[in-house]
Structures are given as C-alpha cells and as structure tokens.
C-alpha cells in the first residue's frame, strides 16, 4: 500500500516523500614544516633629555567696580580666579572680595635617561646547495 486513507469516507491518500542529501567533510594533513630562529642583541642607550617643570605664583588684587565674579583668562595666558565671601546684611547676597591671579612659569632641567634597547635579528639556516636570500 502506497498510502493510507485520511478517513473511512475519503478516497484521498497521503504520501511521505524523502530524498538523500550528501555531506562532504575535509581532513587537514601536515605536508611539511618551516623553522626560523630568532636572536636578540642588546645595545646600550643613553641620552640627556630636557624636562620642563611648572611652578605657580599667586597674586592677590582688589576687586574693581563692575567685576563679573567669573574666572577669566588674561592676555599673558594666566588665569584670574575671583575669591568670594558671604556678607550678612538684611538680605543674604554673594559679594566678590578679591581676584586671585595665578601665573605659571617653566623651569627646564636636564635628566639623564638610560635604557637597554633590544634588537631582534633572524638567522636562516639551509641544508644542501641553497643560498639564502637577503
């Protein structure tokens, strides 16, 4: 019998259809080897390097009429920072008391830097009548 009736009163048949599938696999096999040898040479390194160090200076200035109370950058590159103080009056308000001006300057010092630098080189060896390239 190819199929079976769906029910007793129906003459339709149902069939299951199959087909084959092919599965292909690959195997990896070693066919040879290459060998390289690495050598490390050590060379002494020494150099004098200038190093800048920043120092800060503090200057206090009186508050001028109409001072905004904001941090400002001055023409010479220094930063002007206001210092605030609370005053108690009938109402509480913030009053600029003074402006702090910070300037910095750089002092250059020489420092000796020493280190050992490693350099790698590759040595290739051959067998037989072969001249290495390079």
Describe the structure.
With 134 residues, the protein is an all-beta fold. It has a domain of 92 residues. It is 0% helix and 55% strand. It is built from no helices and six strands. A four-stranded antiparallel beta sheet has the order 3-6-5-4, with no helix packed on it. The chain is flat and about 100 Å long. The two termini are 79 Å apart. The mean pLDDT is 77.
Mean pLDDT score:
77
Structure summary, number of beta strands: 6
**Residue share in helices?**
under 10%
Order of helices and strands: EEEEEE
Which secondary structure elements does this structure contain, and how are they paired or packed?
Elements: E1 4-5, E2 13-14, E3 37-62, E4 72-73, E5 79-88, E6 92-123
Antiparallel strand pairs: 1-2, 3-6, 4-5, 5-6
Q: What's this model, at a glance?
A:
With 134 residues, the chain is mainly β. The protein has strands at residues 4-5, 13-14, 37-62, 72-73, 79-88, 92-123. The two termini are 79 Å apart.
């Amino acid at each position: 019998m190819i199929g079976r009736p769906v029910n007793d009163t129906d003459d339709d048949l149902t069939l299951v259809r199959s087909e084959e599938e092919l599965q292909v696999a690959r195997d990896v096999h070693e066919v040879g080897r290459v060998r390289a040898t690495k050598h490390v040479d050590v060379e002494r390194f020494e150099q004098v390097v200038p190093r800048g160090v920043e120092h800060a200076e503090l200057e206090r200035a009186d508050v001028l009429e109409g001072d905004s109370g904001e941090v400002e950058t001055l023409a010479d590159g220094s930063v002007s920072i206001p210092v605030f103080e609370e005053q108690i009056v009938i109402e509480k308000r913030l009053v600029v008391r003074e402006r702090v001006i910070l300037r910095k300057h750089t002092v250059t010092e020489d420092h000796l830097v020493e280190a050992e630098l490693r350099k790698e080189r590759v040595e290739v060896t051959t067998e037989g009548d072969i001249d290495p390239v390079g």
